[in-house]
Amino acid sequence: MAYRLRWEGHGVYRRFFDVVSATEFREAYEEMTGDLRYGGARYIISDYLDARPGSDLTDTFVGRVEQLTRLQYGGGPDIVHAAVATGDMLAHVRSYETLPLAPYPEATFATVDEARRWIARNPRPGWRTVRRQVASEAGSAPAAARATSRSG
Length: 152
Hints:
Elements (H helix, E strand, L loop, with lengths): L2 E6 L2 E10 L1 H13 L8 E11 L5 H15 L6 E5 L2 H12 L7 E4 L2 H10 L3 H27 L1
């Protein structure tokens, strides 16, 4: 295995190292999405700093993984994804980001610290929706309470 997954409080840190084959890339994806914690994940950090792409890790393969991700994302968690890459892996990461209809907000960084700072500034899109709903309900609650008290 040329990867390790580490579940953190609200997300997963995926570290890839050595030569990463298409099979290992897919295994890491399936292990992550197959874990019960994935449904509540808020972020993914994919660290490719110590990795090199295998000869079968082509743009076509990465595109297929993106399609699969998009299909699973429809009923999946509300995530932001930060990739950390330089060198040869950067081209693969960038090709993934340029594919149409990215399943979730993504960005690429040169360090894990930069990725974590970006995640902290980018709450899950679902949080923004819930916050707006709660704020609008809170704003209308006093008016509804006043109307009820007048009619009683």
